[in-house]
Amino acid sequence: TLFPKLFDAWSDVGVCGRAYHNKLFDLNCWNPRDFSNCPKGSIDDKPYGGGPGMVMMAEPLKKTLDAIKQLHSDKKFKIIFFSPVGKKISQNLVEKILLSKEIKDYIFVCGRYEGVDQRFIDNYVHEILSLGDFVLSGGEYAAMALMDAIIRRIPGSLGNEESSVYDSFMDGFLQYPQYTRPETFDSTKVPDVLLSGHHEKIKLWRRKKALELTCNLRPDLVENAISKKKLSNYELSILKEINFNKN
Ligand code: SAH
Questions:
Q1: Cβ contacts of 138 within 8 Å, gap of 6 or more
Q2: How many C-beta atoms lie closer than 10 Å to residue 90's C-beta?
Q3: What are phi and psi of 33, to 5 degrees?
Q4: Atom 16 in ligand 1: which residue has the minimum CA distance?
Q5: CA angle 149, 155, 11 (to 5 degrees)
Q6: Nearest to 239 by CA among 178, 213, 228
Q7: Residue of the nearest CA to atom 3 in ligand 1?
Q8: pTM higher than 0.85 for the full model?
Q9: pLDDT > 60? residue 55
Q10: What is the pLDDT of residue 246?
Q11: C-alpha 55 to ligand 1 mean position (Å)
Q12: Ligand 1: which of 135, 140, 144, 146 to mutate, judged by most atoms within 8 Å of the beta carbon?
């Protein structure tokens, strides 16, 4: 990253800050500007063929990689570049990264300006990932988002009361709606079942709400679950009740 400072606050606050201070992960920022060929420390140049903006040069990036690999010669890194042309980051991908036995160390290459010389990408990058179909001014935001999603799933990084297993996407669906005090807000009362103290009923209600929400907002997720036969009889009965797919 050309902007290591961006990661200072990120690794100091909230869940990631706590995990960082508890040494659940380690983060080192390397600045390609320190590996520039020219005395002024430039790392970008005009694009061949013309056009607007500047392009990050391959050489300082390659030298940065070499320096990282030299210092950590015992590690096997996967090199990820962030770009809008990459594969979209998803919870599935996050879980795969967490489960990987082989790769525990990553080098995240954060582009800036108009992007990075394609030869660096072709020769050194293992995977290209995107945060979504929009254009950011730097890959740092994608790196932070991906790291955050990974870190909050590392056992011990969330407090006791927080848990990521009930989050959206963890079981393929969106999460059920949540409520907290006061019991009545803007004349709307919290659903009675949540005050009943009846755990089994609450569980079923939440399942139903999660399914309803997913049917309304992300029918693609429900269709995917149906086609993969991932739904229980209770869930199928709810779909029937709300007439999913019959409209
Ligand atoms: N000219 C490029 C965009 C450059 S934006 C294009 O049109 O594809 C500058 C940098 O921000 C990129 O090199 C990339 O590292 C990062 N970036 C921008 N949008 C991104 C996204 N959706 N996901 C991940 N990284 C992104």
A1: 1, 2, 3, 6, 110, 111, 112
A2: 12
A3: -60, -30
A4: 139
A5: 50
A6: 213
A7: 114
A8: yes
A9: yes
A10: 56
A11: 12
A12: 135
